[in-house]
User: What shape does this take?
Amino acid sequence: MSAVRVRLVRDGRVGAVRGRLPTRRPRRPTSAPPVSEGLRRLLGQIVLGGSNVEITRDVATRPGEAVVAAWAVLPSAAHPRMIVPLGNRQAAARSLRLRWDSYWAPRVHVKRALVLAGLRTGVLPAVLGERVEVVRLPVNGSSLVESLLPARLAEVFGTPIIVGAENIDDDPHKNQVLHAMTAVGEPVGFVKVSRGELSRALLGTEAAALKRLGNSPLPGMQVPRVLDHGAWQDGEVLVTARLQPDRRSVVSRTDPPALALTAAVFEAGHRERSPLAVSNYWAGVRVRVDGHVRSDTRNLGARLARLTGELERLAEQEPLELGGWHGDWLPWNMAHCGSELLVWDWEYAGLSAPLGFDLLHFLFGVAFFARDADAITAAARAEARGLPLLRQLGVGDPAARVTFTAYLLEMLLRRLDIVVSGGGADDDRVYPMLPDALEQALGRLADRVPSRDGRP
Assistant: This one.
């Protein structure tokens, strides 16, 4: 039996913001809106390490019990976007400010300013009136809650730690990100907790990449330093130190970072020059393709096998440069700091991929994620801007078109991997548009690659 329980409280006052945890009996609401499964999973990761927790509503503290942690839920438990730690106004405000940047629309900045003011003055809870609390049960007179993730983090950082969280959703392929702060709200690092089989694998990939890059730093770049990586109950946890916090500026959503930085990541991989079909990278692609063909993921098995075979045939005589890539080279995963680029979220990093994949991913990802384009439109934008930039990296035709087509196949396989894990919230813009974009790219490639007998 767990030594803690979690309760959701709707109350006109959250005493925790005033420097103490609430003690008075909360008021029972007239209705009980649903609690997000994402919130249940998040609290399970903090309290139990991955399992969903039962959240009771408005149950008063009983004799021998004590509230040991509390968070404001923004905007609500039914639709949570963030949980902000309560107990210290400064800590709560800093938690809210950690990842909000100039990418947000002006109206969001207005809301941010109002919420920050509410946290600093203590009036925010009176407006929101909803929080979650972890209550320690009287088990053998214990004064510690060993199952709380902050207890582990306190050992890592050597000081008591409180956590906040953002991007709370139900997508199991994504790792949950937590902010680690001291008791007075000083940010000290970030914590990722796996939420499923795919996210656990991605967490392992990121940990390996960060450790490797920590031993061999990239010129002009900073990456997070790994402080802890290992099992956490039924999942995994990765703890990294906070990157340089001062003098940050955001990365353009129009122009990728300097090509020399993309090249530096590439050079840090396993370099080879090889036709795509006999490369180390392609060997991994074939394994993934075969798995999705056998399971007929999204009813795409036969089509995926045909498209992959066509690309393999068209690319068999064109040597490519292969090396490392970040795998998620997007503007919200990096920031400028003086003359350096801070880069995080290395979950899709690899040691063998065609030169230019990161560049194409920046262009495709901005169009798809930031501008809500469908996959065909995003692919067209990435092709139009990406092919000239690939040439600046030294990738000439037809190798550039082979690289672009192979990138679309990589994106299709990534999305199919996510489907298998139970994720994919934006699939209405992916299927059938992404397979169609790949088919169209293969047609253009066929027009430019001579056949074996020399005929176009």
